Each structure stands twice: as structure tokens, then as C-alpha cells.
């Protein structure tokens, strides 16, 4: 029996645990907090723009459980907001329990409040185990790091506006540790356009009960509300600091865009409360995530591992990575795409089989390979790579990788002979 | 990759300290001159605290004047001082491993002598300290009249803090010799409060007295007095360690005593946690002067502030000290 240890229970970690289990491994998932999904607990945007294609690809490849749950938990389906078409917004309060149940039913062992603190090495290139903060060691054959690239507090302070009390809750559950770095591999860092390292998370959330009745009803009904910002408060520079370049559009500086994901998702990294409350209908507004959304948000992209296109970390024999840990990716769908591949490949790696690389006629395969090419240059480090917008969605369209025709997507995956590959038991 | 160190002061009123100002913080990578986080501290960020404190050490331990309420001459080598201190000081010192620096008012600061706290009463603002008279510093403390200079609180008088604090509802063995009985009293108190069943082995040692008896006699302990250096004493020790139900052993005494117990632990394949008194030469208590520095696996560690790996600390000291 191959034992795979996944470090980090965000979307990427959950996806990796799922496919490693389906490929036949014994899987332990380590999560430092008391909930799964990490930033996915306060996200919710699925299927917008190219993410529709990627979600369908993932279903046909065999990662269907994840997409089924996010579809099932959608509060709004097929909506439009500035720059984005056919989006689903999942209900952030419903998804986590469903994912937790699904993973447990598959027989995955989830260890909550179990923070990875260090590694035990067998030799210079092989990890033997993960040291948890209670000094116990989780041994394994193959490891998948999906710890993300956000925090801890010192990084959010040095490269941002300080701790914003985000969903990752470092002061309560301890700092994120870069496992690859502890194992001796240097991190790659993303930059902002002003060549400062890291980037702010791109959205915050308002408590829906703190909004006017009119706005709340409209959100519940339509999922989107666009409110103009007073002229004197329009800040175009703010678009440069965001992670989510798919939302770095002029509309997002001139307007406050709210999306209904259970809270009211505000599509900007942070917004001074004084200014926010000047907007009609937001006189009583207060932040739900991060709690200090009036002054800051979490800083991301400070800890990316160099990897190949099979998601294995370069320089180490038995560590794979996925999600934001594996590149300048943004979003749940991107985390699921890379996570599923890393999980499946963890079993291949343990068997000495060649790792699966997704072909570039699929958006998923192209994104993984393209990001890896781009980050060789400084300019590339300033970009973000997401199916949902920015440079990558443009590329998808120009290469004909973007389609909402599910038959076309299915045929492609069939031609690649990859239908249900993640459902395949290898051991 | 250096092993991450645990600072005893982290998260306390005295963190961040001078070391943070000097880019020498024991825990925070950002305050060691690095650019990114790589700490292992489960609590509020030291770097953030440092920035909030305007890049200055937050609180500094000042030298205060403590009234001597009582001075007991137990014998010619041993005195017990009862000192009046602020309630907060007493509260801070009611911890295993706590110590303060004492000196005679008429002497310069290099007369500061680190002294373990034997007893602390936070309600009345009283602490008791046992002093073994054996050199210039303790001699002038002995000649103090009504007052004494006191600097504190410090906490790293033992290695294995988390074992002492974390052991509950279990069997514990406490071995104390000589003046090391003094800090043992607070440790026994802590273990007792955590509902442990405690066996104490006392060796009067060079102070020739079982002087903590009145501080621990209410705790329903099993107390054995012996000479640990005798054959009988060694038999008692070995037999006590052989009890498989023992979850924690604390050794207060010399490094040779620690090693003696460690050897029995290995011989008997005991799984008990092991905590020991910190016997390194402590001089400033602030991680500045370096007199307490030890080198473990090539890493220089200032043991007045850092919780060492007990086994490595003992083996290193005894073999190369």
C-alpha cells in the first residue's frame, strides 16, 4: 500500500487527496485549522469565463466529485457580472461540510488542527516524514504540498498592510510553513507590477445583514449588485496590487461590485470602511472576511515551489505540489485542476510509472505548462494565470481552448484517451 | 537548515526584546535579517508586535528594590530569603523554571546572581529564594540588610517546560539534590495542581538539609530521602525509574546527575518525558552576553532563553563541557 500525505486542506489539497485515494493510495490529509477549503471558505466563484471549460475538462478527467458538489451548492447559476460570463456562485456555508463528508466517505484520513512544522529527510532529496507542531511525525511514501502561498502574519505585514484576520487564522492555528523550503528547495516569488513581492487577495466579504434591504434582496435574487463609487474615491492604482487580475478591470475601480456567495463578496482587496459607508445602501456595512477588510487583506504568492508539468517539485524525489504552491494560479478551479493531477501522479511516482502530463489541447494542460514557461522571466512573475481572465483567458480564446460546448470538451478528452483517468485505480 | 529554536519569552510582556532590535531574534526569521517568514510560533506574530512597538523592544526588565521580610539561616551555607515584590512579579514567578537576579544594593551590576524561585505567593506579593553561600556574589547577598536589588522575571531555569506543564493525571518522578530542591518546590506544586501522582527523591547534597519539606508536605507525595551517590541511592533511583507507568521525570541537580538518570532511562528503555534543571552559566538572562551559550549540532544557542533538547544538552555538556 502506498501512503500519500497531503499537506494543506484547501481546494488543491482536497482534490489531491481525492485522486490519490482513487488511484489506490492510503491518504492522510493534514490541515492546520479546523475546516477544509482554506481560502475556498470565503471564495465561491466557479465556471466564470474559461473556468467553465476547465470545470468540464476536470469532470471528464475524473475529478467530477468536486465539480458536482460546487454545482450542487450553487446559490446562483449562470450569472453575469462585469467582465465575466456564465458564472456560478457557490454557497460558502454549504460546500465545506459536503466536501468533508465526501472525502471521509472515500476513506481519506483527515487530521485537523495538525500543522506541518518541518520535514524529516531520508537523504538530501527524499522526504521521510512531516513533523507536526506537537512534534509527532507523519511518515509517508509520497508527499503533496498544497500549503498555498499566503501568510503567515510577518509576510502579510512586510509585504502588505499587516494581518487582516483572514480565514487562515494564523494567530489561532499557527504559521504556514513552506515544506519545500524546509526540504531544501528555494521558493519562487510572485511580484506586483511595482516589483514588490506578493499580492493582495482580490476580494473581501461584507456581512449581508449589514447592507440595506434593497441591496440584500437584489443580491439574493440576482447574485450581483453594482454600485458606483463616489468620483473622489475612485482609485485606479488599487488594481495593481490584486492577485486576481481577472478582476483588475476599470469597472472594478469605478464601482463596488458585490456578489452573493452567502456573504456579500466585495470585489476589491480591502476598502476603508469610512469610504465604503458613503455609498448609498452601505451605511451600516461591516466586514465579515477578512475581519479587518477595511485596512488590509492577506498577501499571497510568497512561496511557490519549482515544479515540472507532472506537478513534481524539482530537486526532490517524492514531493509534488498543487494549487497556489505550484504556481501563480488564482482560483478554486485552478487549485482543483492542479490538485487532481498531483494526487493522481503521487501514486504513479511511488510506482515508478511516468507521470501524467495533461496535453496542451486541453485548457488545463496548457495552463500548467504555460505558467511554467512564463515564470522564467520577471515579467511572467508579475502576471497571474487563471482560466477566468487576464492574459491567460485571452490566450485560451486565441488558441481555441475556450468553449462552453460540453460535447466538444468531452470529445477532446476522449481523443486524448483520458476519460476517467483519475478514476483509474493504479495499485 | 538550522533547527528552529523556541524562546521562553515569546508572546510574553518581554517580547520582542533587545535581540529583535539587533536582528538576532531567536524565533522570527524576519527579525534575523531574512526577508520571509519561516517561524514555528503558534501565536501573535513577533514581527508584527515589533512593528507595533515602533521597532523597539517592548518592555524591559528593570532592576527593582525588594524588601527583605525575613531571612532564615538554615545553616552556615544556606539562607532562605523572603522578599516583598509587586503582585505581578510574584504571579509571573509562580512558574516552573522561574528565576531572578539578586544583588546587594552596594554592589555594581556585575554582582547580579541568578537565583531560582522556590515559592511565590501572588496574593500577598511574596517570593522565597534559597541561597547557597559559595562565592563572592552569594556572600554579599548574605550580607544584605533590609533590601536587595532584584531583576526579573526570568523563566528558563529548566529544560522541558512543555512536559512539566503538559503532564496531567499521570505518575511523575521528581529527583532533587542539594540547592536544586528550591526550584523543585514550584515544579512539584505545578505537577500536583495538574492532578499527577508524584514520587519525590530527595538528596540533601552539599546544603545538608531537606529544606523544602514545609513547602511540599501538603501534597500527598511519596517522599524518599537518600544519598544518590551511594549504592543504596542508585538502587532506589533505578527502581523508581523502572516503573513503566511513569510519564515524566524531572531531575534537579548537576549535569552528572542528569546523565546518570538519562543512562537509566536508556538502560530500562523508559518512554518517560525527561525535564532537567538548566545548569549553564547564566549571567545576563537576556541572550546578550553569551556566557550561557552552548553549541548543539553546530548551532550556537543561548540557553538562558532557549528550551534545549534535553538529551543533546546533557550529553554535550558532560562530554565536552
UniProtKB/TrEMBL annotation, chain A:
Entry annotated with the keyword Ion transport: no
Biological processes annotated in GO: tRNA methylation; tRNA wobble uridine modification
InterPro entries: FAD/NAD-bd_sf, MnmG-rel, MnmG_N
UniProt protein name: FAD-dependent pyridine nucleotide-disulfide oxidoreductase
GO molecular function: flavin adenine dinucleotide binding
Pfam families membership: GIDA
Entry superkingdom: Bacteria
Cofactors demanded by this protein: FAD
Organism field: Thermoanaerobacterium aotearoense SCUT27
Residue span, MnmG N-terminal domain: 3-216, 275-352
Quaternary structure, from the entry: Homodimer. Heterotetramer of two MnmE and two MnmG subunits.
UniProt keyword annotations, A-Z: FAD, Flavoprotein, NAD, tRNA processing
Coiled-coil stretches noted in the UniProt entry, renumbered to this chain: none
Amino acid at each position: 500500500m502506498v501512503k500519500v500525505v497531503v499537506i494543506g486542506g484547501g481546494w488543491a489539497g482536497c482534490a489531491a487527496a481525492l485522486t490519490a485515494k482513487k488511484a489506490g493510495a492510503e491518504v492522510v490529509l493534514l490541515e492546520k485549522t479546523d475546516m477544509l477549503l482554506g481560502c475556498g471558505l470565503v471564495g465561491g466563484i466557479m465556471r466564470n469565463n474559461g473556468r467553465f471549460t476547465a470545470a468540464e475538462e476536470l469532470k471528464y478527467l475524473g475529478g467530477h466529485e468536486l465539480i458536482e458538489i460546487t454545482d450542487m451548492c450553487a446559490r446562483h447559476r449562470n450569472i453575469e457580472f462585469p467582465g465575466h460570463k456564465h458564472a456560478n456562485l457557490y454557497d460558502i456555508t454549504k460546500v465545506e461540510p459536503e466536501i468533508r463528508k465526501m472525502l471521509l466517505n472515500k476513506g481519506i484520513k483527515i487530521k485537523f488542527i495538525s500543522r506541518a512544522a518541518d520535514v524529516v529527510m531520508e537523504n538530501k532529496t527524499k522526504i521521510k516524514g512531516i513533523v507536526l507542531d506537537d512534534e509527532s511525525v507523519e511518515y509517508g511514501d509520497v508527499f503533496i504540498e498544497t500549503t498555498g502561498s499566503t501568510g503567515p502574519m510577518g509576510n502579510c505585514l512586510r509585504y502588505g498592510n499587516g494581518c487582516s484576520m483572514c480565514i487562515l487564522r494564523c494567530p489561532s492555528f499557527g504559521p504556514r510553513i513552506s515544506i519545500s523550503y524546509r526540504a531544501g528547495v528555494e521558493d519562487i516569488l510572485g511580484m506586483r507590477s511595482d516589483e514588490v513581492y506578493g499580492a493582495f487577495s482580490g476580494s473581501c466579504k461584507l456581512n449581508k445583514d449589514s447592507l440595506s434591504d434593497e441591496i440584500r434582496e437584489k443580491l439574493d435574487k440576482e447574485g450581483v449588485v453594482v454600485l458606483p463609487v463616489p468620483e473622489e474615491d475612485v482609485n485606479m492604482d488599487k488594481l495593481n496590487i490584486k492577485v486576481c487580475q481577472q478582476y483588475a478591470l476599470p469597472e472594478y475601480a469605478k464601482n463596488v461590485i458585490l456578489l452573493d456567495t452567502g456573504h456579500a463578496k466585495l470585489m476589491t482587496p480591502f476598502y476603508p470602511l469610512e469610504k465604503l459607508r458613503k455609498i448609498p445602501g452601505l451605511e451600516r456595512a461591516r466586514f465579515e472576511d477578512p475581519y479587518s477588510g477595511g485596512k488590509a487583506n492577506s498577501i499571497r504568492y510568497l512561496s511557490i515551489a519549482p515544479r515540472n508539468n507532472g506537478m513534481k517539485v524539482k530537486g526532490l524525489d517524492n514531493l509534488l505540489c498543487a494549487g497556489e504552491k505550484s504556481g501563480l494560479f488564482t482560483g478554486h478551479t485552478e487549485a482543483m485542476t492542479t490538485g487532481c493531477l498531483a494526487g493522481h501522479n503521487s501514486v504513479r511516482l511511488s510506482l515508478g510509472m511516468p507521470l501524467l502530463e495533461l496535453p496542451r489541447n486541453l485548457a488545463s494542460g496548457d495552463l500548467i505548462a504555460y505558467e511554467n514557461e512564463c515564470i522564467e522571466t520577471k515579467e511572467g512573475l508579475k502576471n497571474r494565470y487563471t482560466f477566468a481572465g487576464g492574459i491567460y483567458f485571452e490566450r485560451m480564446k486565441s488558441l481555441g481552448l475556450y468553449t462552453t460546448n460540453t460535447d466538444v470538451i468531452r470529445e477532446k478528452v476522449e481523443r486524448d484517451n483520458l476519460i476517467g483517468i483519475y478514476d483509474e485505480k493504479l495499485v | 537548515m538550522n533547527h528552529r529554536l523556541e524562546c521562553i519569552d515569546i508572546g510574553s510582556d518581554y517580547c520582542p526584546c533587545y535581540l529583535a532590535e539587533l536582528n538576532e531574534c531567536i524565533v522570527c526569521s524576519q527579525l534575523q535579517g531574512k526577508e520571509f517568514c519561516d517561524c514555528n510560533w503558534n501565536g501573535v506574530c513577533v514581527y508584527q508586535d515589533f512593528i507595533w512597538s515602533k521597532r523597539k523592544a517592548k518592555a524591559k526588565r528593570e532592576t527593582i528594590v525588594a524588601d527583605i521580610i525575613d531571612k532564615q539561616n538554615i545553616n552556615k551555607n544556606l539562607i532562605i530569603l523572603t522578599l516583598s515584590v509587586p503582585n505581578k512579579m510574584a504571579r509571573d514567578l509562580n512558574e516552573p523554571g522561574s528565576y531572578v537576579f539578586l544583588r546587594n544594593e552596594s554592589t555594581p551590576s556585575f554582582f547580579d546572581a541568578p537565583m531560582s524561585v522556590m515559592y511565590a505567593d501572588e496574593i500577598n506579593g511574596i517570593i522565597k529564594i534559597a541561597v547557597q553561600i559559595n562565592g563572592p556574589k552569594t556572600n554579599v547577598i548574605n550580607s544584605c540588610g533590609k533590601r536587595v536589588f532584584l531583576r526579573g522575571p526570568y523563566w528558563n531555569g529548566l529544560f522541558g517546560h512543555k512536559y512539566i506543564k503538559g503532564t496531567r493525571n499521570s505518575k511523575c518522578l521528581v529527583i532533587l539534590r542539594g540547592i536544586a530542591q528550591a526550584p523543585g518546590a514550584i515544579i512539584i506544586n505545578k505537577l500536583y495542581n495538574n492532578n499527577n501522582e508524584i514520587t519525590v527523591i530527595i538528596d540533601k547534597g552539599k546544603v545538608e538539609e531537606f529544606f523544602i519539606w514545609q513547602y511540599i508536605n501538603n501534597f500527598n507525595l511519596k517522599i524518599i530521602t537518600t544519598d544518590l551517590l551511594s549504592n543504596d541511592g542508585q538502587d532506589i533511583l533505578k527502581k523508581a525509574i523502572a516503573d513503566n507507568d511513569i510519564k515524566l521525570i524531572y531531575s534537579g541537580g548537576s549535569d552528572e546527575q542528569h546523565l546518570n538518570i538519562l543512562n537509566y532511562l536508556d538502560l530500562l528503555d523508559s518512554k518517560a518525558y525527561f525535564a532537567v534543571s538548566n545548569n549553564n552559566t547564566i549571567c545576563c538572562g537576556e541572550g546578550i552576553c553569551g556566557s550561557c551559550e552552548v553549541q548543539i549540532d553546530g548551532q550556537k544557542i543561548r540557553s538562558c532563553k532557549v528550551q534545549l533538547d534535553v538529551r543533546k544538552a546533557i550529553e554535550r555538556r558532560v562530554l565536552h563541557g
